[in-house]
Amino acid sequence: MENDTFFTATEKRQLITLYRKLLQLTGDTLHKGDGKQLKAYLVNAAQSNAIHRDTFGLNPVLKDMQTAIIVAEEMGMKRASMISIMLRESVQRGRYTVNEVGHAYGEDVAGIIRGLIRVNELYDKSPSIESENFRNLLLSFAEDMRVILIMIADRVNLMRQIKESDNDEARREVASEAAYLYAPLAHKLGLYKLKSELEDLSLKYTEPEVYYHIKDKLNATKRARDKYITAFIAPLQAKLEATGMHFHIKGRTKSIHSIYQKMKKQKCPFEGVYDLFAIRIILDSHVDKEKLECWQAYSIVTDMYQPNPKRLRDWLSVPKSNGYESLHITVMGPEGKWVEVQIRTERMDEVAERGLAAHWRYKGVKGENGLDEWLTSVREALENSDAGGLETMDQFKLDLYEDEVFVFTPKGDLFKLPKGATVLDFAFHIHSKLGCKCIGARVNGKNVQLRQKLNSGDQVEITTSNAQTPKQDWLNIVTTSKARTKIRQALKELVAGQLDFAKETIERRFKNRKIEYDEGVMMRLIKRLGFKTVSDFYQHIADGVLDANEVIEKYLEQQRRETETHEDTTRSAEGYNLQPSIPEDAVRGKEDVLVIDQNLKGLDFKPARCCNPIYGDDVFGFVTVSGGIKIHRADCPNAHELRERFGYRIVKARWAGKSQGTQYPITLRVVGNDDIGIVTNITSIISKENDISLRAIGIDSHDGLFSGTLTVLIGDTGRLEALIKKLRTVKGVKQVTRN
Length: 739
What we know:
Blueprint: H1 9-26, H2 34-47, H3 60-75, H4 79-92, H5 98-105, H6 107-122, H7 132-142, H8 145-161, H9 168-188, H10 192-206, H11 208-242, E1 247-253, H12 256-266, E2 277-283, H13 290-304, E3 306-307, E4 313-314, E5 327-332, E6 338-345, H14 346-354, H15 358-362, H16 371-383, E7 404-408, E8 414-418, H17 423-430, H18 432-436, E9 438-443, E10 446-448, E11 460-464, H19 481-512, H20 519-528, H21 534-542, H22 548-563, E12 594-596, E13 605-607, E14 619-623, E15 629-633, H23 639-645, E16 650-655, E17 664-673, H24 676-688, E18 693-702, E19 705-714, H25 717-728, E20 733-738
Parallel strand pairs: 2-6, 13-15
Antiparallel strand pairs: 1-2, 3-5, 4-5, 5-6, 7-8, 9-10, 9-11, 12-16, 14-15, 14-16, 17-19, 17-20, 18-19
Helix pairs in contact: 1-3, 2-4, 3-4, 3-8, 4-6, 5-6, 6-8, 8-9, 8-10, 9-10, 10-11, 11-12, 17-19, 19-21, 19-22, 20-22
């Protein structure tokens, strides 16, 4: 590649070396013309300023070639991965489209680039990258396994290249991410060598004094340590061979990062770490004899070297929850040094190398069916790359988390929910109080309802209202048992609170009216009113179906029934009926007191018989088919349907002037004791009122009570309220309401 302004002289020399090495590693998988076409793409991208040096000033072309070499050399991935790495930045910066790359190099390459860009977009949400959930979200978002492997390789390469950088702050940030994100990913995929390198370099950049202190200590003791390991193994090997067991022994020194973790955990200096190195005895045993031979080897080791009983770890009798089986014992070797010895079989070692990390099952993560088999296949593909195992990498699609979704809060915190979870599930997942006040959410900046289902990567901001309370139908919206449990609990508490409030209301009214409360009388009243439980009775009061004052009147009536002797000679009020007709002109006065629409007077209008509006009521007009206008009360039983079906025929109406000379028919419903004397008192009151005329009365009696309807002509709502107040004072009258 020739570009005098983009490459320095040193970089040009590096470019040739890297190109030759990359060609050597991937040449057998490249298609004819790949190299020439890729060079043209990169030259154009560089000349058009489509690719730039990063924060550390690294040349992007060289850096990507170095990453491609790691991917090919350490992981065995060839053509598709290499081309994807070289072109991803050009695509991300808009120089080329994914479709253009797919047309030139195939959908395989385009798919990897698409995954790399998609994963990179997650960082724009500023998430809590160190969380376990974010690692899982990366896996679910990447779709193609190679995306994750390329990410790991890219971070390893970056960590190698920034050792001389002057930008210490950026280097620390990169190193921290390597420790808590990329190293765990590498561990999960069995890339143990790269995992250790990431951890050691991270420690080197974030805590250089600690790193070099441990490194110097290890260097100072390396020759002696190797000699010591050999001396420790030799007699042990001879003794084991004498028993006829088949085995091999490994000796290893811990990584610098691992030693530092031990120092922190044990709160000791370098010299105090027991297991700077470990010996692993791996037995070739039949499954039926595994435990027997492991304990036999254990016996030989502890006979030869003094064990520390506090350091015995028996994962043979009870394996770890991730399937790990092994015997760990720390023994006192020559020169009084502690040595950790691990004893296991070939099968156990295979499980240990290819099994899940412990926390996967400790956490009880769902949706990971088949993960063992899948990860094992990936590891085998990586380890058998020479045999062409990575030819099948295209088949690896990350469907591990298909029953889970991962969603962000506005602050970047990440939560895991079952697939199909709704906004309401998420609200209750965070906190019960948030769920109970939830009225919806903003998902990726858009307002959505409670029942909106969430997808992985969604950023969710719950919206609340203090007026909101849990509803029964919420149980049909949520999908998680956690949310259902919390909703049921909240509903139970809400009902209990309402019942307590209703009971307190009744008791307060009794106290205010200085009425002695008799529990027995109240229970009999509740039963007579038809309630199956006391809770149902108080719920009706809480819902406003029953009025507290009405309940007290019924209570007093019940009390009288039980304490007084009623005479059957009382004449029933049922026979008292008056049904004269009401002339149409009775409802019209001498002056027009209604303004229709804006300022129109003199229009032909009539009060609607369904609600009988009078002066002072809130009203509206309805244009009839004949062109006349019917006036309805705003609370007319038919108002809702009229507005919904015939909204275009609704006109505004308001009262004006005075109501003198104008009378309107209204109907009152009166409930009281079945006694004709009460009816006489009622009619007497009406007859004494000026400008109020009784036009009709109908009485029905049942079970000692009468229910009557009174039709009167009256001028306005003020006179009506005064009349109702007087009628309620009549002895024996229980209720007076306007129909």
